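Data availability excerpt. The first of two example chains:
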Amino acid sequence: MIRKLFIAFVTSLSFSAVQAQATQEQPGADLIVFNAKIFTGNQAQPEASALAVKKGRIYSVGSDVEILGLKNSNTEIIDARSRRLIPGIVDAHIHVLNDLAYNYNVRWDGVPTLREALTMLNEQATRTPEGQWVKVIGGWSPYQFEENRFPTLDELREAVPDRPMIVQYAYNQAFLNKQAMEALGVGTDRFPKVPDTEFEKDSHGNPTGVVHGYTWLFLALEAMVPQPTFDEQVSSLIYSIHGLNQFGVTSIIDNGGRWPYPEAQARVAVLARDNRLNVRMPFVDLQLGDGGPVNMVDLEIEAITRTAPISPGQNLHPTLAHGHEYQGAGEVLSGEVHDHENFDRPAVIIGPDKMRRFVEQDVKKLVQRRIPFRMHVSYNENISPFLDALEKVNATIPLDGLKWSLEHAETISPENIARVKKLGGGIALDAKMALHGDGFIKTYNREKALQTPRLRKLVDSGMPLAMTTDAFRAATFNPWVGISWMVSGKSVSGSEILAEDNRLSRTEALKLFTSGAAWFMNAEAELGIIAPGNLADFSVLDRDYFTVPEDQVSSISSILTIMDGKVVYGAQDFSALSPKLPDILPAWSPGKYFGSYHGKK
């Protein structure tokens, strides 16, 4: 009798499990978006009006009638209202984890006039508590302003009269008020002794507050100002990602910074745990050490083999595909051969023998261990000896498909483009010329600017190629500013900055932020196009990228961003679908009042 009851009980449980599975696995889509103008990026099916999503992947693409026929009682259905839908944007080079004080900063990205920018500073100065700073850290350009100039020190002092203030322009220069200079110890031994730092002086030989330098100076200054708490860092991560989602960005590659692995990853883990990481976020790692000369490659190998063992391609996110994968070392592999890219100064040329020794001694270690790497190298004069040495390494220890890339490569020559391709590498360009190209013209000349970078030759080469933002400090995080520059040839000032024969079509430009960028994530079979089986990342735009006038391209934004089949951002018609953000930390954050980008809160 007991045996019969046990069998009946087990049978009942099995039936219930099968029934539950049948309910869970009922045919049909989880999400359908219809009545859209879909740019698929898929040559086999270039256009469609509807798509269906199931389990975070695109299930089917086709006409409204075809796709709506796949709905079931649980399907979420979204009417795109005849708007343009594109694949999710992939930013293959950005520094989110370098900006864990994001919420402390006033963002001047997209602000149209210097007058308004100064007003923002003045308003924030009244809210910033004693002991904190008023900061603008990158993302803007004087050429974006109607006034077409930098702020003066007098204007900045008037805007921020009683708090320390730093206004940083890319990694080129910063403006400090009196309180900031005193806090940093300008003119004393407390101020960091970083090579190539130059203070402007007044007629009496005293520092004015305008300081010029390179990357290391500004990283040092950032470490000397008040630091956010752990919770504020997590909040900064949430809000910086939200800013990216506003422009249709669904995947990024974090390219390292002052917060190394595994320390920085603890902040991402909080979002992963709560299923709130609203962007795919593979990362490469940069180990700066604790100050002083270090071998960054050795520190990287130590970090991933002993400190917190991890393998290339290993995903730290428990559920999200490409959620937080380790993708190797970079972008800085050695401080001694870092050529920066400050277009207000002549190119930093590394001694060729020094570059070759670095590759043959240190990059070789990465190749031996099959650790992918990314190399920041801006100027062709430095690319040549780097490739000389890498070809030599490849002759004895074949790269053989190991993922590697040059980052930036602004002035790369056609000959070196061919060499990178032959070695199986990629090039991750960036759109800094859109913001800073006017400065490049002053330093060099217009003729050189018109071919910087060689977009047409790079695209026509067929090599792995992406356009990136290199945000949040070197340039703005808005990818549409870069797309506009590639298409129109104009910088944010309206100046012609790319020759007509060096511009791209709208389709080509978009692909560098979608399917082209997917290669750098090791996800070219899953991301970058709208096709069945691909990850369900896409956005609906506020205007049709393919038909709006050129001068409107830089103003495009997303009004519906979907990542992993879930809405991560909604505005206008879709604002009700947008997930609610937690309260921003700290409560006085400039982002609470100004948002992350001009006109967006």
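And the second chain:
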Amino acid sequence: MFKVGIFFGGPAREREISFLGGKTTYTGLDRYLFEPIPIFIDGRGNFILIDPTYMESASIRDFYPPQAFVSSDKYPFRVYEESLSLSPDQEEAMIASVGKRLLPHEFKAYFDFAFLAVHGPQLEDGAIQGLLEWYGIPYYGSGLMGSGIGIDKIAQNELIQRTVGLPKRLFSLSKSEWDRFDKEVLFEQVKAQVGLPFVCKAPHQGSSIGVSFVKTDDIKAFEAGVLQSFFQKTITPQEWVMLSYEEKGALLQQITNLDEGIAFPLFINEEKLCKHPAELWVELDTRFAEQYEPVQLSSIHSEDAVLFESFVKGQEFSCGVIQDFDGKPLALPPSEVIKDDEDIVFDFKTKYLTSVVRKGIPIRTSLANNEKVHAYVKETFRLFAFGACARIDGFLSPEGEVLLHDPNTLPGMSPSSFIFKQMAEIGLNVTDSLTYFIRFSLRERIRTGKFTGIYRKELAKIDALIKDRTAHLASRPTKLIAFEATDESYEIAKKLYNVLTASAEWRPLLVYKHPELGEVVINAAYMAKPGIADLNASLTEPLHPLIAACRENALEVTRFITGDSVPEVIAYQ
């Protein structure tokens, strides 16, 4: 059995999304093949072998920093541990209260493979990948080159433009230019380059953090969008003094939150470091009592440039790419982001906090256009030296132009993520997908020429385990999961299904009690639909030719991982 260290958290703004992916990986790993070892990375970069009970928490802040280390003298702020001023002994005590500190040279004693359920700078840009390569630990995802390209949106767009073509209007603005030049002049320059409306992006963030939409010819909206992408915020004395005690606390909590604020630690007027919202509260009270001047707050992880992109009116999509046994890219069925309003920007709030968008597979267009998307994403995957798995987003214009952007070398791992839904369409459930990611990532590490002999032995061991599992899968006792034609019943069945597929003892049998077809026995592809209406449609509508082609292209991989053929309705009873 392989021990898999599941890395999650980290100093990036996407650490809560990372935690969701870490939990999915922890519960979804096949217990016949792998032993999951949760490795939490805190905001200071400490690696912690964490007590598995904390994997049931809803948020990182529910267990770290532990409540005993959090002071709430003035207002009960929910902070991350970077806001705490701790001595070395206190830091060690904080770590020991949730687990055991690990140093990189100790990794090999605890796990054989690092599954990187992480996102953002230092985690997705080649930094942690380089650390693991130094210590000879194989890891999930792309290597150093692909990771470095995958984190930089400005470099990505330039490379895509020069290689596979990108007829999208782009412009970038450095922080020094923003500070030196008149804002009206800069606004006119951006409009001349990309037009109106346009999107402002933080170049090194994922999960659409630091993204805003400038819809109108409004200098204030432009300035607000740029500051959001730089992770800066201005507070005026007029704004502050008019707030009640509760409103001040709520504003500072908003600044603390990673998804909507600039986060702590931060600089006040780019000179004084401030770690805690309570400390900032005192500073603002004091400064505004002494001088009536605005205060500018800047994250210590602020961006040095802003990327502007012309707003594209078209069908937004996300397409996963995996590999076959020879390393050639295999495009998955793309997901279309279907919006209630075409002017909606798919930002962090839209992705995770609202229900104004839904995902459809494949893109609602011609087969030729879907195939064109496949050709572009596969070529990008190859040229950028991605490995194992990547997700590449883009737009399909009404004229049939494909405009790619934001390749992602470590796609999100939450249960409802694009990548799992697309993997399900070729017959791989969450557990099977994770097995694929580990096995084919190990194969990618061999291609680099480092520790090749050792990794080949590890790969042979994993392949033997997978073959043994698939050979004995049919002999496992069956657990029946029967569900009714309601969304609630369907969701419960999904959860039970995911638990049983990760089990080393059971084999789930899914029976859907269809109101017209009767009892229908189904499998993986049908357990990733958004709701019961989508499930019903998939059972009665003909299979889309693009999905059929994807299943056929991935058949060798699918059969190796599952021991089964392409997914289909097994029987009507």
